[in-house]
Amino acid sequence: KAGVTQTPRYLIKTRGQQVTLSCSPISGHRSVSWYQQTPGQGLQFLFEYFSETQRNKGNFPGRFSGRQFSNSRSEMNVSTLELGDSALYLCASTLEGTGFGKLFFGSGTQLSVL
Amino acid sequence: QQQVKQSPQSLIVQKGGISIINCAYENTAFDYFPWYQQFPGKGPALLIAIRPDVSEKKEGRFTISFNKSAKQFSLHIMDSQPGDSATYFCAADTGTASKLTFGTGTRLQVTL
Description:
By secondary structure, chain A is mainly β.
């Protein structure tokens, strides 16, 4: 069974641009979560989608948004990029999103903002 | 603020030794406490997890000890191996396991 797939693996953008990251969850998984990982702040929860609906949201500005499609694939978008947005963005999926399900992470998209 | 405090930041253990990583939490609503292992260039992978209704859970060489009254939990890696060299994160959640609050991570190096 294929794992969580994130594309692209690396991305370089300049300040002010916007970026879209993609995540394909494990087949059959309906919940997709996004996390930002930085050396200074560690792993921080961005948002979670379940059955195309945002179910949970972390403490990030509105420039960070996401969506989930009917096939459970998810995208996250960051608009008006800032230098501080440079980070590893991780996507994770779980089967049901409830009941302490096992969270499977992808290898992430490394975003560099210049 | 929901926080999970993790220590130490880094740890060097000899092969065959015991690695111990500690975490403390504040939010008493947390009821799911997983540990994740992350290798360079990879996403975190679930290692072991515990619910607060038990004080200890063991899976192979990995053991979680949980102290509900002290709001602390720890990961013990017995017979540590060089292949265990990675960054370990504790985490906590209130039920869905999809909105995890992570500790700051411990970089473990197991030397020969």
